Predict the structure.
Amino acid sequence: MNKENNRHEIVKIAFILILGAIAPMLDTTMTNVAINTIMNDLNSSVHVVQWVTTGYILSLGITVLFTGWASDRFSGKNLYIAGIILFLIGSIFSGIASNIDILIIGRLIQGAGSGIVVSLLSTLIVRAAGGKNLGSLMAIVGLPAVLIPILGPTIGGYIIDQLNWHWIFYVNIPIVAVSIALVIWLMPKFPASKKYGKSFDWIGFLILGGMFSSLILGIVKFSNYGNLSSANVLIPLFIGIDLLVAYVIYAQKFSKHALVSLSLFKSINFSGATVILLMSGITVNGAMFLLPLYLQNVRGLSVVWSGTYLIFQGVGLLVSRTQIGKLTDRIGTRWVVLVSVVIAVLSTLPFAFFDDNTVDCKINPNAVRTKKD
């Protein structure tokens, strides 16, 4: 009975944490279908408006570096509330934005709050469970963590069609308000595990933050110029690489103080998992950014239909994620990951042959038809 009550408590905590993370996870991709609408409404260019998405991801990634340290030294509950409130402030800024500059600032604030919330989601659930039954618990967390961003463009498309793009940010307000109330009322404090210890590594934080910023800026510039010969592309890329080398040297010299210890990468499992997470993140988020643009700009679909087409990827994730936790606990991660990668590669290959003539497969679902000239 005690064991059953403990499981119910863990599930309750997981539900509250996931509810608080719904809005941040949605906004990771929901704005993708709104890019064209925002660009036209705010009289901006594609080179500037892309920072609505890029700035959010960059801010999120940099904040994650701080959250890992802060979660050991501050109450997990208070830190989670701070992240949600920060995200709420960013949502209000973004919603009321009348020009692209205010919108980008709002998205940067949103990204910072999202970085705290999303980082703490898994950390606090693992703490609540005491490290037991992690496969099943990660399935509980992983399903919304993957499914919600996938459904973001679909939900965003319907919101924009029925209201306007401002409401993709306003819709966060009631979700966040309910989440804050539940966290304050029902969630345990998760006291700091390390009240004392090494101070925050500001030097490492600035080096890594500058590295991420430079590399992302270089990639964005590459997408604008289309080649690597431009100084506008090469300079930020070289700065990013130089900062990476600088951090490696710094972390080796001050290993006990470094924000991210290089000793972690001595573990083959850790290094392999990191590479897989990086590649899967690029695959999922890249597709979620490109597919709405392809459907709207190349195929000429409305925001509603472009969002509707993306539902099917969410359905596939929903079906598979329900079994992943059980399989991981039963046979381990190796074969689950290998089979998943093979399926992902095979199902992605057809997209390489899509063009402006590719149409729906309504008669024969096993064949790809094209429009006749």
